[in-house]
Amino acid sequence: MIRILSIALALLVLTACDNSQQPATSPHGEHNALPIKIKFSHVVAESTPKGIGANKFKQLVEQRLAGKVIVEVYPNSQLYGDDKEMEALLLGDVQLIAPSLAKFGKYTKKLQVFDLPFLFDDIHAVERFQKGTLGKQLLSAMAGQNFIGLGYWHNGMKQLSANKPLRIPADAKGLKFRIQHSDVLQTQFETLGANPQKLAFAEVYNALQTGVVDGAENPWSNIYSKKFHEVQKYFSETNHGVLDYLLVTSTQFWNGLPPKIRTELEKILNEVSEEVNKLALDVEAQDRQKVLDFAKQTSKTEVLTLTKEELAQWREVMKPVWQKFEADIGKDVIEAAIMANQSP
Fold first, then answer.
1. What is the pLDDT of residues 254-303, one digit of tens each?
2. Residue 306 half-sphere exposure, CB side, CA atoms within 13 Å?
3. Which residue range forms the structural domain that includes residue 299?
């Protein structure tokens, strides 16, 4: 009798424990006992515009959706490098990422417009294009691959760096440059007679330090936050391309959210995007100045200001890259980007 009572009591305890782990409704139900978890993974430092934006998103979600949504932010490739985060998103291991726009070539060719060299005059032209009709349409360009873009985040215009002065295109010939996984960027450096090397962002510092690659292209915020100025002797102010991010999630996750929660998350993301993009302009200027100060104080690096004639040579040599990718990207997309260079 005692044994029967003990077994019955054990079964009751197990049943109670099992029931305690079950949500009150479906995982994304309005009255879910367990909050929705969003893992936001990225590969840069928390001090960069993207890092600050990710933490701001977490803060606002905790304020406005307390008890309903939890955000966990993982910077500096803590969870995944930039070569693995897209796959992780599809598998549901993370719910939000913000890769460079150069990372999406295998999913849609249209976003390659952002990699074309010397297409945009400055970051303001980039923003005008992104806020235009075609720029907004590109957010849904990967819907068929289960990705949806939620907004663009600025980082800045790219500068060339190497351990030799790069003043004219011929100076880059034969050098090894780290690039992102982008066919456009590969063609860009091949056009210069250089050797592009595809490497994950987390590997760049060591690759530059040990000579695995001779140079790279980065905006000032990446250069300063990752201390590339400590392992590169020269930076040429080319502003030849843009390195922006696409805030992206999976359509399955996004469409599975309760409508009210999804609407509030959209509002928060729009607010954060505006803040990040304004901040990016300030950070770009501040980090450029910090690199200049470092150069003056240590003489370990030098920032080269190119003349109009020198920049014109770079632009002329790289121009054929546009024609090579025009069919993939779409002539209408490229023309809209060119029009964005005109101030309203």
1. 999 999 999 999 999 999 999 999 999 999 999 999 999 999 999 999 99
2. 23
3. 35-339
